[in-house]
Write a structure and sequence with these properties.
The protein is mainly beta. It has one helix spanning 2-18; strands at residues 112-119, 122-128, 143-145, 150-154, 160-164, 167-170, 176-179. It is rod-shaped, with a radius of gyration of 29 Å. The model is unreliable at 4-14 and 17-21 (pLDDT under 50).
Length: 180
């Protein structure tokens, strides 16, 4: 029995030593995290940037480890988290098509943007009624001068509807008046 225990101890010790050398079969990517094959937590031992299944401890495994967490280095980002409407475009719920429920009305006209997001590096705003949330005089029904011969009427969806107008006069508040 003593020989069996001594042999087991020797094999285990040699295994531990082999897993701490530079060319480590238990840490092929060299990130310091042992692979799952060696009893460690590294689910992707071929990539230094992905290792522990839930590195940020938010309860969701990283995509690299077969999970659904789109940013496993941020504990405030995981599927199903409440999306926050923030100027940084931070995606809290791992769904780039959603926006927060916070309503933004920068010009305090009662209409405003209810959604901001950054998609592929481009800022995208969705508005609830307001066609220009930086000008309180522009809201659904307001008019602004468009290209020559056109006037733009703010629709209730935040987009302008273009109509013909022979002469459009820009008002000091940024709105327009059509003279036909």
């Amino acid at each position: 029995m003593k020989i069996l225990l001594a042999s087991t101890f020797l094999i285990f010790t040699l295994f531990q030593i082999s897993c701490t050398e530079d060319n480590n079969p238990c840490d092929k990517d060299g990130d310091g995290i042992l692979s799952r094959d060696c009893g460690g937590e590294d689910c992707n031992d071929g990539d230094k940037n992905s290792g522990i299944a839930d590195a940020d401890g938010d309860g969701f495994n990283s995509i690299a480890c077969g999970g659904t967490d789109c940013n496993d280095l941020d504990p405030t980002t995981f599927p199903g988290n409440d999306e926050v409407n923030d100027a940084e475009g931070h995606d809290e719920d791992c769904n780039p098509s959603t926006c927060g429920q916070t309503r933004i009305d920068a010009d305090n006209d009662g209409y405003g943007a209810n959604c901001f997001q950054r998609i592929n590096g481009v800022d995208v705003y969705s508005y609830t009624g307001d066609c220009d949330d930086n000008n309180a005089a522009i809201f659904p029904g307001s008019q602004v001068c468009g290209r020559q011969g056109r006037i733009l009427i703010c629709g209730g969806d935040g987009f302008y509807v273009e109509q013909l107008c022979k002469t459009c006069i820009v008002q000091p508040n940024g709105t327009g008046v059509c003279l036909n």
